[in-house]
Amino acid sequence: MAEATALLEVHDVTKSFGAVAAVQGVSFPLYGGEAHALVGENGAGKSTIVKMLAGVHRPDTGTLRMDGTDVDFAGPADAKAAGIAVIYQEPTLFPDLSVAENIAMGNQPLTRLRQIDRKAMHANAERLFRRLGVQLDPTRPARGLSIADQQLVEIAKALSSEARILIMDEPTAALSAVEVERLFSVVRSLRDEGAAILFISHRFEEITALCERVTIMRDGKHVATELVADLTVDDMIRRMVGRDLSALFPKQTVEPGEVMLEVSALSREGVFRDISFTVRAGEIVALAGLVGAGRSEVMQAVFGVDPYDSGTVKVKGKRLKPGSPRAAMAAGLALVPEDRRQQGLVMELSIERNVTLPRARKLARLGLLFGGAEREAAATWTSKLQTKLGSLSDAVGTLSGGNQQKVVLAKWLSTSPQLLIVDEPTRGIDVGTKAEVHRLMSSLAADGLAVVMVSSELPEVLGMADRVVVLREGRVAAILSRDEATGESVMYAAMGQEAA
Amino acid sequence: MTPAAARPPIKFDILKTRELGIVLALAALVLYTTINNPRFLSGQSVRDNLLNTAILAVMATGQAVVVITRNIDLSVGSVLGISAFAVATVMSDHPGLPMIIAILVGLAVGAAAGLLNGVLVRYGKVPALVVTLGTLYMYRGITYSWAGGSQVNADELPAHFLNFANDNLLGVPWLVLIALLVVGATTWVMRNYRVGRELYAMGSSPPAAELAGIKVARNLLGAFVLSGALAGLAGVLFAARFGTVDASAGTGYELNVVAAVVVGGVAVFGGSGTVWGAGLGALLLTVISSALAVLDINQFWQQAIVGALIVLAIGADRLVAVRIARSLRKRDAHV
Amino acid sequence: MSRKFATWDTAIIALTVLVLIIASLVVDNFGTSRNFTFMVLDLLPIILVALPMTFIIVTGEIDLSVASTLGLTSSLMGWFWNHGLSIETIIPLCIVIGAVAGVLNGFLITGLGLPSLAVTIGTLALYRGLALVVLGDGAVADFPFNYTGWVTGTIGGGAVPNVLILIVVLALIFGVILHATPVGRSLYAIGANAQAAHFAGIRVARTKFWLYVVSGAVAGLVGVLWTLRYSSARADNGAGLELAVVAAVLLGGVSIFGGKGSLPGVLAGVVLLTALQNALRLEDVSGQALNIVTGALLVLSVLLPNLISSIRGNWQRRKLRQSAA
Which segments of the protein form a coiled coil according to its record (chain A) (predicted)? Predict the structure, then answer.
């Protein structure tokens, strides 16, 4: 390139975890004085890139270059020393230490006797908070801070290290509009001082407001690096998704049957309040909203893995015992959870054990389980879903993301549910599998299954859902019919703005 | 302004109340015991209590540092044993050696044992519980093979070594001075130096510590070496105080040490608590045991009380944590 | 991953067989029927306590209080006997008391959500302390011979000890539960990923609670057997046994992090430890020096698999780099 040498260059890096290639041959430059957006769907490999820049992961192949020379980070300390500061999606604070200590960790101001200068440390924290326009007590422990406040402390931490390269992995997800604006003004001033910014976000209005350049990734691969000004939002989405939107979501029209699920006035203190909606047999109802709006939490309370404080959940008119996944399963509910690795699967266990886990008791004869019954059940369902696998006795962790998701679906479909709750059903899986999952959901609904789908992907919501329940900050913001639901109407409801 | 501006500050300092709680409990216990038997506050009785606390407090100091990093060192009793036997053997073979050499030998033996623990935990990726349970056996076994049933008696040890336990500096026994120095200095370092705060950070959130670029390996090895070295020092004090040392010295001490630390308010999940709290815990356990004798209560209650205190202490920590979490959730609830 | 631990199981079983063969060839008196009887009696407490301990460690928890529960029931057995209760009443009573000790552990761990390591270190001290309170440093010895004789006796006076029946029956029950029932399946799921188990409708807390109750009951039973074997109820009976049990379970290939391991592996681990100690003792190596072997085996049982997998990982990465270059 003719432009100045990049402050940092990602050069043809590849990183695999087991059989899953998270990043394959990705290259892009970061220039000083420029904010660079990194976009892609969930699972496109953005976070893996961040972790390589942060020194957490080492690239399998390829290199990182700073000021034109190759660098090799043995750990986060090296990246930090090289002037890279990272704000992670999940806050990484020390709950037992004070806010000021969290900010100063690693470069606390010292007195002559090399003791920590607490006064200077607190003053420093206060100065940073003033710059960010927030008011937090630097002496309070980080434990108990709200997510937004934690994120602000993370930002203060990054600022205090005076990094040349600032990487932000969805820093705004939990912030209010005012806080976002304040953050941006600080980031802009850093940028103007010559720092390079790498900004990861799902909010296109933020990208266009903040960034000069954008790199688009899809399924672990680099798609394009362009000037933001040269692209429309539609261009970016099309390249992220890599397909035409309408063709992908073939929801058949079904005459809705009886009411399967009736949620009324469901509340859980501090999480969600007064949630009411119904789902009929043959319907797909989508729960839409921003990250943190409480969608997964509502459905986990319905299924009984989380408790709730008040309200009722009725299945086919009968009240469901709260806080008992077992009762929910007996009533015909199934939940394909959001976090496949933590909630959906037991990674170390074999595919067959995972598939049969929820109904091992039903497969047992005289209380005893013999390999045959489990294997047979697992084989039936994995082949129905066309899961690509070596042997059913392989650990499920060895499968690719898409096939892992199929195992989770097999696990729950094998319980013959009448109401299927799917939480982010296509997160982090390849395009082909995505289409298969959508087709599957559609045909299940056509067979009379009631489906509740939590999804952050707008095209998926609009393509699949008969009705869209939009949540905002733990409350129902709108319930939209298929005809009413458009990209704009859902987003406006989710963000609490009036349609322009 | 963010909503934070409007929030009243909450009193978070559970730790201070914990240490205050121990002091109050101690005061009540001493008061009650003294009323029943005024001799409890006599010079000799106080002196005995302090001397008995000293060894436990030195070990509790190292253990507290290890527990703060969200680890545990169960091998300390065996390290005391091997160090005590080593030092007693060296001193009986070379009676001319000064006390400081004895102390250095003890520290070195303990540090080596601690280093092995730390290396296995950090580089072998074996949990501290398993490592130190294993080395608890191994170090004790080595001592037994070495001793082969023999013991070092007081009359084989040089007088200056044995006198060390009884000698005073300005009326304060050396043992107590050493314990005060160890507890005080470690508390100070843990509170005011970078390395101390990093140890807290490592226990508070191990993944965040890695991300923050803290030298986790160095610090962890340091914590285990400290715990080993202090157990080694305790071995020297043990040999000097009791004079007779066989291979079983310090057997089962790990239980009292862990109890002192936990009762002293160091959270078993790591990240919080203070070293001087652990020192207070050691004092409390010692005073309870001697109060039982003075109050003419069956001595056999002592261990049961230690166990009950451990369970109560971690239960209390948990309840306080749950209450705070609940009040915070209520306060932060915008919905 | 699962394959790696499968090899560890098999390796331990093979090693155990090897040690048994070599010991009977090399060590005088090792292969005699008399020594076999002794070995089974030495095996008895470790193996029985190891059965529920395996379950608990598979779920990712630990119970260090078992030996103290054993001591407590032994003490109480002596106290009850001194107070004129019949042995037929005392034995079930002691098992129930063991179970009650387990209830307290289970409640603290699953009800209050306290870490099992800290709780059971606490109750380790508590139960042993209570044992001392009950019996002090005294001993009760005059238990009826038909009971003490049964424990030390052999079937028809031959080489097979009576207690071997008990070991085989209990090991079979625990083995079948762990490896061929829905409960067993759920234990592995809980240990490998408690959250995913919860999402699959498994009652994690309740399951763990009952494991501690069973562990306590078995420790109570072993307290009875121990007392009868040595014809002596003492407060310090079985002190330190928890370490041998944990060592044997980990040696048998159960992961301290939960989710992995098999009962045959654990049985081999117990036999290996006991046989080694027995053989070395016959060779006049002091009992305490054997601790070095026990401790080293405990550490190695976790260290070796870790080293193997990290070496494998490095090797794979290197291969990947080479193929890319």
Answer: none
Q: For chain B, how many structural domains are there in total?
A: 1
Write down how long chain C is.
Answer: 325
Describe chain A by its helix, strand, coil percentages, rounded to 5: 35, 25, 40
Domain that holds residue C222: 43-271
Residue C181 lies in a domain: yes
Q: How many CB pairs under 8 A join A and C?
A: 88
Q: Assign B53 to helix, strand or coil.
A: helix
Greatest C-alpha distance within chain B: 76
Q: 3-class SS at A1?
A: coil
- Partner residue facing A116 (CB), from B197, B208, B213: B197
E strands, B121-245, are 168-169, 172-173
Closest CA to A232 of A253, A216, A251, A245: A216
- Does the beta-carbon distance from B205 to A475 stay under 8 Å? no
Report the domain count for chain C.
Answer: 1
Query: Domains in chain A, ordered, with CATH?
Result: 8-93+145-241 (3.40.50.300), 246-495 (3.40.50.300)
Token duo for residue A241: 């998704």
**Position B96 in a domain:** yes
Q: Which residues of C touch A370 (CB under 8 A)?
A: 180
CATH number at residue B263: 1.10.3470
Chain-chain contact of C296 with B301 (C-beta, under 8 angstroms): no
Residue B166 lies in domain = 43-325
Q: Taking an 8 Å Cβ-Cβ cutoff, which residues of chain C contact chain A?
A: 1-2, 176, 180-182, 184-186, 188-189, 192-193, 195-203, 259-260, 317, 320-321, 324-325
Pairing of strands C233-234, A318-319: unpaired
How is residue C113 written in tokens?
């959500």
> Counting beta carbons within 10 angstroms of the beta carbon of residue B334, is it exposed (0 to 12), middle (13 to 18) or buried (19 or more)?
exposed
A48 close to A219: Cβ distance less than 8 angstroms: no
- Out of A361-375, B1-15, C132-146, C164-178, give the one with best mean pLDDT: C164-178
Which tens digits make up the pLDDT trace of A16-73?
Answer: 876 667 888 999 999 999 999 998 876 678 888 999 999 988 999 899 998 888 999 9
A81 contact partners, CB below 8 Å, separation of at least 6 = B213
Where are any strands of DSSP class E within A190-340? 196-200, 213-218, 221-227, 259-268, 272-280, 284-288, 310-315, 318-319, 333-336
C296-299 contact pairs (CB < 8 A, 24+): C296/B134, C296/B138, C297/B134, C297/C247, C297/C251, C297/C272, C297/C273, C298/B130, C298/B133, C298/B134, C298/B137, C298/C246, C298/C247, C298/C250, C298/C251, C299/B120, C299/B124, C299/B126, C299/B130, C299/B131, C299/B134, C299/B135, C299/B138
Q: Which chains would you list as touching A if contact means 3+ CB atom pairs under 8 Å?
A: B, C
In a domain, C3, yes or no: no
pLDDT in tens, B100-125: 999 999 999 999 999 999 999 999 98
Any domain includes B334: no
d(CA C278, CA B19): 49
Cα-based distances in Å from A442 to A249, A337, A406, A411: 9, 19, 15, 18
Residue B17 included in any domain? no
CA torsion, ordered B150, B152, B156, B159, to nearest 10 deg = 180
Q: Chain B closest CA to A165's CA: distance in Å? A: 16
String of DSSP letters for A387-422: ---S-TTSBGGGS-HHHHHHHHHHHHHTT--SEEEE
Interatomic CA distance for residues C150 and A77, integer angstroms: 65
Which helix or strand (DSSP H or E) is residue A473 part of?
none
For chain B, the 3-state helix, strand and coil shares in percent, each to the nearest 5, are: 75, 0, 25
Low-confidence ranges of chain A (pLDDT < 70): 1-4, 18-20, 42-43, 173-174, 241-250, 371, 428, 430-431, 497-500
